[in-house]
Amino acid sequence: MDVTASIVLYNTDASELSKALQSILRNNLDLKLFLIDNSLTNNLNSFEKKDQIIYIHNPSNPGFGASHNIAIEKSISSGSKYHFVVNPDVYFNDDVIQSMIEYAKKDLTIGMMMPQILNLDGSIQNLPKLLPNPFSILLRKLKKPKKAYQKFINKYELRNVSQNRVYDTPVLSGCFTLLNLEAIKQIGMYDDKFFMYFEDWDLSRRMHQHYKTIYFPLVSVYHGYDSGANKSSKLFKIFVKSAITYFNKWGWFFDSEREKINNQAMSQFK
Fold first, then answer.
1. Considering the entire predicted model, what is its pTM?
2. CB 2 within 8 A of CB 81
3. Are the CB atoms for 239 and 143 separated by under 8 Å?
């Protein structure tokens, strides 16, 4: 089994999940998919198919990264070489999985990959990023003053880079990610100190220290971006807690690697 994937569920809409599953399984790949369900009930176990989909009820709900780790551990044990982390609100039409695997197999220094992520209306979500500092997070939330924000966001989210360019960037989003499991064995899985938010940035950064973390916009997926932390006080508190965890781990205003890594990333575009 060369390829595995996992989706973490929490009170997930069944029709939304069905659309994601159809996207992943439509091309008859020899792929095993783990559904890690953190809901209190196991109503979604009807999606389990013994030959290809494995449903795991996980009502203790340890968080996004910790739940994907359950599947990643099983994937490594089964001998899988590549693992896809997928959000349940993602779907796609083209053969995204095979295209990403074929590209990754040509370069074993690639540790992580992310395709182009589109909003449901087809516009691009600007998800590859440079490493943040605390002001990055604050300015991204406030979006003011407008002139300073626009200059900052264009650089921070690499918005001026050609939309079809493949490049190595230190921050990838976890909504749809290909993991090289040999690399994961070396650098470790998701840090379960992050319940939700920033766990993908933390993993990207650790991976980027030893492997390429590639943005691959030659294929794309649709993602129903909800920005929950901007709408829910509960999710906002989780976001703030995760941000504190991230900067406590990597450094707040004094981060010896951050500027060096960001400069290296920007040097690709000169």
1. 0.93
2. yes
3. no
